[in-house]
Design a protein that fits this description.
This protein is about 35% helix and about 20% strand. By secondary structure, it is α+β, with helices and mostly antiparallel strands. The protein has one domain: Beta-Lactamase. The longest helix is centred in the last third of the chain and has 26 residues. About 35% of the residues are buried. About 5% of the residues have low confidence.
């Protein structure tokens, strides 16, 4: 990825305010678009609950990972997200202060439907994202790449994603790096689950 001029990007305050206003406008909306619901949603949500990560306090390990992702890809925003039944909750959020958004406008909701990376390189010209409020609204999102956080049982809890306000192109090396960082997140979550359950570590 080619680094962009940081002066041309929205400030952290502007980004956070736009996401905060979006989250406020989404409150009270409990019906999620069926197109972003996986066929195995009930089992997936059981897996989300099994990991007991939702609404846990900030964590230095995940915050270091999102900071590293932002530096590695030269992007202003990097997030570890968990997709709940009606919201996308941010376990770690580098570059903004918002902790969650509604599941409906969230690109992470689409990313968990994939077996591999979900990439939108130029959102205003991508038919998959044209109507997304993060793209069409004040947030002004142009680029999104998310690697699913897949459990050993094959369920996607959420994503490790990177965002920018300029179009980007993902190289093969970029894709490999994002997959590896997502794998590090899942290794950490698996170890925490094993420690909490008292189960021996498996290969």
């Amino acid at each position: 990825m080619t680094a962009r001029n940081p002066e041309d990007r929205p400030s952290t305050t502007e980004v956070s305010q736009a996401l905060y206003e979006l989250s406020l406008s989404s409150r009270g909306k409990h019906k999620v678009d069926a197109t972003v619901i996986p066929a195995d949603e009930a089992a997936r949500m059981e897996e989300v609950r099994r990991y007991s990560i939702l609404d846990t306090p900030p964590d230095g390990a995940f915050d270091r990972l999102t900071a590293l992702a932002a530096r590695l890809f030269s992007v202003p925003v990097a997030i570890v997200s968990i997709v709940d039944h009606d919201r996308i909750w941010f376990k770690s959020h580098h570059g903004l202060d918002v902790q969650q958004i509604s599941r409906d406008p969230g690109l992470c909701a689409s990313a968990i439907l994939q077996d591999d990376l979900w990439v939108v390189e130029n959102a205003p010209e991508d038919p998959r994202a044209l109507l997304n409020p993060l793209v069409a609204g004040e947030f002004g999102l142009k680029f999104y790449a998310g690697a699913p956080l897949k459990t050993r049982n094959g369920y996607n809890l959420g994503t490790l994603c990177i965002l920018d306000f300029e179009p980007r192109t993902m190289t093969d090396s970029d894709s490999a790096n994002l997959r590896d960082l997502a794998a590090v997140v899942m290794t950490d979550l698996e170890l925490r689950l094993e420690a909490a359950s008292g189960l021996p570590r498996t290969a």
